[in-house]
Structure formats: C-alpha cells, structure tokens
Amino acid sequence: MRNLSGWKKSCLLAVGVAAGAVAMRAQTFVVPAAVTSYRTMPYTNLSGAQALATDPAGDLFFTRPGSGILAERPAGGGAEITLYTAPSGGGGYPKGVAANSTYAYMTDYAGHLWQVAINGGAATDLAPACNSLDGYYLGTQDVAADGLGNVYVAGNNETPLFKITSAGVCSTVTGVTLDANSHVAADAAGDLAYSTGGVLYSLPAGATSATAVSATFSPIAGLRADAAGDVFVTTGSSVVEVPYINGALSGANAFTVLNQSSVNDIAVGADGTLYATDGTNVFKNTIGNVRFAAVAVGSTSATQTVNVVFNAATTLTGFRYASGVGVSTEVANAGTGSCAATGTYAPGASCTIDLTFTPSTPGMRKDAVVLLTAAGLAGEVAVTGQGSGAALTVDPGTQIALGSGWATPAGVAVDPAGNVFATDSAKGTVSYLPAGATTATVIASGLSLPGAVAVGPDGSVYVASLGTNTIFEIPFDGTTFGTLTAVVTGLNSPSSLQFGAGGSLFVANTGAGTVLRIPNQSGTLNFTSRMTVAALTAPAGLAFDASGTLYVSDSAAGTISTVSGGVATTAVSGLSTPGTIAVDDAGSLYVVQNSGTSVTRIAYSGGSYNTNATTSLGSGFSKLVSAALDSAGNLYVADANGPSVTEIERTAGLLNLGKSNVGAATSAQSLIFSNGGDTSLTFGSPLYSAGGNTSDFTISTTATNTCANGASIASGTSCAVAASFDPTAQGVRTETLTISSNAVNASPVTGAFTGTGINLPKTTTALTITPGGTTTYGTSVTANVVVTSQGSTTTPTGTVTFLVNGVTYTTVALTNGQASATITGLPAGNDTIDATYSGDANYAASAGQTATIVVVLAPTTTTLTSSATSAVSVPPGTSITLTAKVTSAVTSSQPTGTVNFVSGGTVLAAASVNNSGIATVTTTTLPAGTYTITAVYSGDSGFGGSTSNGVQVALISQQYVVSSTPASMTVSAPGSASTTFTIAPISGYIGGVDFACSGLPANTQCAFIPATVQFTGTNLAPQTVTLTITTDTPAPSTVAWVLPFGSLLLLGAQRRRKWLSIRNSMLTALVVVASCSALLGLSGCGSSVANQTPGGTSTVTVTMTGTPNGTTTVPTSGAGNIVKTFTFSLTVK
C-alpha cells in the first residue's frame, strides 16, 4: 500500500494528519457497458480559459489568458481569487496549470514556470532551476504536479521531461522523449503518464523506462490523472479513462466517460469529479452519480439529466429504480430523456435519462437507477437527494425485538426503504429483515467473524470479515441475492462500512489507522482502486450527513471528526471509545461508546455540538456494538451480549413511570421531543390529543424547556412533556399523546406514559446532594438516596432513577437500601435533582423530595492569534486566518457558542467554537488599514463570556518604503561624498526601483549603487543604496549616459528568460565598468574653471521610480509606476 500525503490545510485532529491517496489493486475492474454522468455549469464567462487543475482540497484553478490571470475558485464556494497576474510583456500569457496541496503552478508563452502559494504570497519562477540542463531556453508547455511535492514540465522546444523537486532541484526524467505536442500527467504517488507522437505512455514511480499503452487516441489533446493513477485522455470529441490496474495503465480497459466536444482542458477532483472547460465555461461532471439539491418533503424537484455513453453494443430491457433492495417511490423518470427502456445502442452512442426526486421523509437518500439487459445490468447511476423538513422524534422510544436465535450480533444496517440487515459474528451469517418485519432470513453464511455491514444504492450488500480482513459482496438483482464474493482483500481490522453521497464505498480500516474510499467509477465500484481519505489513530465508525460530509469516530482518541475536501476537523472530543456513529438530518450525532448500554445523542444546534447536554437512548442493553438510523429517526442496534437486534421506534415514544400504590403519585418524568429535521418544527394548538387511562396521569407542559401549544423548536433542539403517575386502579395503566405538528418524518408521532398500579407497603426515599446550594458549572454533584420501608424489616430492593430537571439521568440498583450517582454537566441556572424508587415485589415505589442547586457560569479566557500581524504587513486581498482559543478550568466539558472578531466596535467576522474550544475564520475581504482585533466569546449555557487581547493586523498595498535618508551632505569642490539610505518592500512588493536627482548645483552629478534595486519572489530583504555626489564634473555629464545605457541593457535582458542569468553577471559587470570608467575619466581630466561647481547650499530631491510587476498592483493613475521622493540639503565648499 502506498501511503500518500499532501492536503491543503493542517489537520485539527489530536493525532494524525489528513492523507492523500493509497492505491491497492489486488482485485479487478469490469468496464461498464454504459457509463453514466451528470453535468452542471458552475462557472461561466471565463474569457478564453484554456487550462484547469484541482488541488487535494477540491479547489479549482484556471487561467484567463486574455488578462494573464491565474485564478482560484475555493471548494467551499466564495468569490474568485486572483492568485497571480503574469507580466504582459514578452509573451507572458498563461498556458498550463497544475496544483498540489500548497502551490498552484502556471506555464506561459515566455518560458516561465510560475509557482504561487495557494494561501497567498509572491510568485516564483522555477524555470531557471533548469538553466544548466536546458541551455537557458526551456519553452514551457504542459505542467503536472504529484502528491510528493514534485513538478513536471514539458517543453515545446526540447525532448526531455523536466522534474523540479520541492527543494528546487531540476533533473530530467529518465526514459522519456517528448515532442512539441506532448502532454504529461502525474498522480499522488508520482506515477507518470505522458504522450508523444500521438501515443500514450505509462511510467510508474520508480520505473526507468516507459511502456506504451495499448489503446488508440486521436488526437491526444490533454492528460490528467486522478489520485489513484487513472488517466483521463482528452480527444477531439470525448474524454477517455485509462484505468491504472496492478501497477500500470491498462489500455485494454480504456473506456469513454464523456462525449463532449470543444474541450480545452479537464481537471480531476479528489472525489473523481471531472471538470472541463470549453474556453468560456467550466462544466462539472459527476461520473456515475447525480445529486439533487434539498427538496421539501412532498415536493418534486426540477428535472436532472443523466448522460449515458455506451462502450459496447447494448440492448436495454428496462430501468430499475432502486432504494436499496426496495423499489424507490421517490426517484422517477420524467419521460423527457432520449434513452429508451428497450432501446439498442452501438458503441460510442449516447442518450439521456431525465429524473425527478420527490422525497417522502427528511434526510439523505441514496438510491440508484439501474440500466438492465437480458444478461444483467449495463450500468447504473447513484442518485442522491435530501428531503427537507421538520422531523419529530420522541425519547425514550418503543423497543421492538428483531429476529431471534442470535448468538453474537455484530453489525446492523438499514436501507432507505427501511429494510434491515444484521451480521452474527459467532454464526458467520448475514441476515435480512424486510421493512416492518421481525423475522430474519439468512442471505449469506460461512463468513469468518462478520462485522460491519452496508447496503449499496442498488441493494447489493457489503460485509466486512474481521477473520479474513476482507470485504464481501452479496449482489442483488432486484429480486434475489446472489453468491457471496470477496471484492476487497488485505485490509487491517475493517470496522465500519458506509456509502457516500456519490455512491462510493468508504471503509474504516481500523488496524491501519485509515479511512479508505472505493470509488464509484462510471457507475460501478472500482475495487482495483482504494484511496486513503483520512488518517487517524483508530477510525472505528463512519457516517455521512445530508450535505455529504463524512464523519469519523476515533476510538483511541475519543473524538468524532469531519472530513471534507481533504481536511479533517475535530467536531466532538472527550468521548469514551466511540465506535459506530450515525447523523440525522439536523446534523445531530448518535454514538455507541465503549460498547455501552445505550446510544448517546449529541445535539447539533446553533452551529455547534452541545456535548454539555447529551441524551441516552435505549435501555436494557448490555454491550451495544452497532447502530443505524433511518430517515424517520428510528434507531436499530445490535447488542452482542443480549444477544439481540432491536429497533428503537422513536416516532412512538414510551416512558415507564414504574409501580405506584393506588392513590400515591410518583415524581414527574419527561418525554423528550426533538427536531431531527433541517427546518424549524412548529407544534399545533392544542399540542396533543390524549387517549387511554387519562385520569391516572397528570401531564405538565409548564416546567422549564417544555413543549407548548403553537410553539416552535429549531433544528436539532428539544423540548419536554412531563407526567406523574397516580394510579386509580391496580394493573398496567397507559396514556398516549398524539402530537400535532408540521413534522413530515412520520404520521402519527406519539408519546406514551405507562405505569403499574399496585397495593404494597409504602416506602420513603430520602435524597441528599453534595455539594448543595451554589456551585460553578462543571462541578460534579453526588446524589445519595436511602430507601426505607414502613412497618417491615425487610430491606427494599430494586432500582433508583435519578432525574435532572425532570429528565432521566441514570438508573442505579439499590445496595442495602442505598444508591448514589455522580451527576455531571448540570447547566447553569436553577437545576432540580429528583430520585424515584422503582419498588419491588414487597414494597411500593416512592419519590424523594426535590433537591435544588444553583449553578453559576464557569469563567473563561480567550486568546487570539492571527496569520498576519502588523509586524509583517500584507496586501489587501490576502487570506488572513484569525484563530480564537477559549479555555476554562473546567475539564469535564468544553465551551460552545460563538466568537465575534471585533475591531473598533465593528464585528469583522464570527465563528462557532468547536469542541476543542477553537473558533477560526479566514477572510480575504478586509480593506487596507491597520486593525486592532479582539476575539469576543459570547458564552453559553455553562461558560461565561470573555474577551481576548488585541492583535494588530496591517493590510497595506504592495509598495516600497525608503528609510535612513540623509538630512544633509557636505562635499568639496572638486571632490565627492557618499551617503546611504535603505529601500524595503512592503506587503510582498515585487519589482524594480530606479533613482534620479534634481536640484543639483551646476557641474555636479549624482550616482547610485546599485543603479536599480530589484525585489523578487526570492529576494524581499531591505537593500542599502549608496548615493555619491561628485563636483566639478563636465556638462553634459559622462555619468548621465551610463545609467540609461545600463537600463537599456537590462531591458533587453528581460526580453527572454534565457538571459536572466546573464543579466546577473555580464550585464551588471558592463554597467559597473561603464560607470567606473566615467568617474575615472572625470577625475583624470582635472578641473577647469568652466567645470567648477559653485559653493553654497542647495536643496536636492531624490526621485525613486518603482516599476511594479508580478503581483504588485499597478497604481490607478495608469502610469504603472510608484514614485516617491526625499530631499536633503547639499553644501558645496
């Protein structure tokens, strides 16, 4: 396995960094007869763009040759960023583009290879590094970058392929011969592909000779490689993929992915997306998948067109609209496409399928449209969409046993249609339960320690065998399951499988510390290509949210992180061995921790995860090892020790208030109503209708955080409905509330209270808490209970349930009539703690007196750092990152909330605090000026606000400054005198500065050494200039013609890059010799009366003319120069 790295940004995980790609190709790849794709046009009006590239983070780079601009479109959206503007003279028009995680590269017609930092900075020409190899005449054409920091450039004047390392060392690539029309591509591992003479060659990393690829392309107009080494060839009318299989490009398996003419260039994203430009627009092509934007539940989307290209003669027999193993009722054929369900198509033919999406529930949907033939399938397109709306769930939910006869359940999954799949590691089986069924059917057996299981969009089932470190496929044809087949081998303790939004399969390869992606390539999983998308300590669980962001739990680090665009960021920390995870439509997380007894819900609201107020879901379990979530919000869990597989039906809540004597009321307990959708949930008025034993329960909606008639709760938030039980008769008593709301996940949604009326001796429950009174947030509180009986000496048994603010916190078994619990995470404010004894066969239940405690906000400290400070000014438009760190003495939880970045009372930006206490913003929009910025933390339910120290940030337009100038000079006549001053660049100024004097007395000359100060991308240090005043000089000045002559020589030197080195040697020497000769000539002639300098004092003006180039902004005056002056008093004696 090749472990590749090179992401754009630093990983914010406690351990590990975001990684590049790893290719392991022990399996095969079957070329699909029909390749599917979906095209959008995200960018227009690019004014002749002819080159594209992407970096590992998904940022897109392109050129605007008409204006010489290299531009970036950030992956996360936002305005176009101009990275570099090539000099207009000398043919400096852009040609090729490449990018890695740190730099973008651009070749131009003047023979330059510009390297520009993606996060901002000056441009550097790398081509001079090859001067000794190319004879100072490298005509740069195509460029490629691998994932190891190397850049490859093909010239249009030479036959070698040049390689420039990250250290700037240039060499030629052995075994490569190019022509004037050659192209080059590189993958993350350094595997190369190039074309010459119309033939494609493969040169794997480490090889010394290339191999011709056995495929014909006419013509080869461009090459690009994805991270795994697959090469995409642009021809005159199509884009052809050449898979990288078993260490080489496979021409025999080459196939067309796009029929698209007038393609100037393409780029391949890290997720396999193909970007293409026709010179004016950029087209985004997702291969093998189509994605619908969020659609309100019950509404129908706009039509999306799927393009189909046939690589073999194909006769279709129909389409299957799959929702896992079910039939999709949400994805439909609009009937306006050109593909016929029973049509016959020749190789190279194409047609379209127009699809619509009508979601019936909120959340992500992963469906598929399968193109069928008499022999099976010709191809398929994964269809992803999101249903948008409110989703009401009730906890605790009703628990329903699924299947029977389990030995050691190990994994559970549910498809979009509600069909459930579970593995049994002891029995070596995979079982299937149709939606709504409770009887399981074995669909595969003979596996060694099967664990994680996932269902593909087309219904095929994938299971990880921990005994053989292999992933197996159970194919599904729409009717029956096929034969178990090994598809991925050589893994290391694969513990989780999940399908992403694009139809790719992701694997938590726990033993190796990596997360792998098996790509959906052109509508089929390519098991020959496995790419590492994240590196952690022990990735254990995977999940995707509605936007397609990947979440990964790390059992060793105790974290859950998001992985998006190649960047991993800690979202939640401080967990105890997190394993399986799931995400609902609101973004809230569901976590199985430490093979525990319940699933932990971590709410996502207000832009952050509130780890200070989690909810435990499920009861009666002993060792949960897996959990899955359906679109209605119901949970499915596997309990290895139960052993059991259980559905927790969260659309039908059920809270057991225990046993109580007839006529004796229990303490109130609450059902929790949560909004798991992505829009606000509004309750009806009245809130509910009640049925059942309504006289036995007292319902309350008046306490803190209660649901109310007509009230609304935001996405991810919750409210409560409380009830106490006062039975009027013995036996089981139940009251059911049918909730009225705008929720669209299920109908009806109910919450029920139940209890058992008894007639047993009474008990007394005494509750005490330590500390009491007032405490600071984050302080643990110990609750102690003593249960005593009345009229009996038998010690009570059973359990005590501790409640915080009316919500169950934990249940503890009595020992010698006593129980205690340590309560953490009490929110700031007035909190109540209750304890309820369950009763047993001898005694009735009872409740203790409510204890009240006041929790005050914990103090915080906020610190601020900036990527740019006043110590080093930067130009406007520079990307500046502000990072605030909020800390507290509390260790049991982390601050949440918002940080405002403020200057002069104005909020410049705001960011949410993540679970590491960090809030970060990156901006490029601050105007010029000097700012004193503070970070103001807002506080949250547990932590008080705080304000950081001020940090100065200076944004100054690129220019130069002069310092240490003389106030006066004294010179004898005849004679000369010298002084110095300093020129320094500001904000990365690149360009030259020339000098001239005015106001000199007669027969006096001034000279400057150096005559021109040059600031380049590699030389931005201040430079000292020596000014020499010489008296008794003839007029016109001999020196006067030296400087213009030298300037002409230097101007000529700039006409071709091959003279750059010469300018630094021969031309400089000529100027110095000429200057010296002039000065020597003056002194040798003596002094005549006609040439004498008159005595006295004059005011001399030194004029500095800066000629900007590169990234320096040209002044609005249009002159293109930056002119500055200083004066001094000159006294001639």
TrEMBL record:
Signal peptide location: 1-26
Matches recorded under InterPro entries: 6-blade_b-propeller_TolB-like, Big_3_5, Ig-like_fold, Vgb
Keyword line: Signal
Pfam family membership, one: Big_3_5
Claim: Signal is one of the keywords in the record: yes
Alphabetized Gene3D superfamilies for the sequence: 2.40.10.500, Immunoglobulins, TolB, C-terminal domain
Domain Bacterial Ig-like: 772-855, 870-953
Classification via NCBIfam families: choice_anch_D
Protein name: Ig-like domain (Group 3)
The organism of origin for this protein: Bryocella elongata
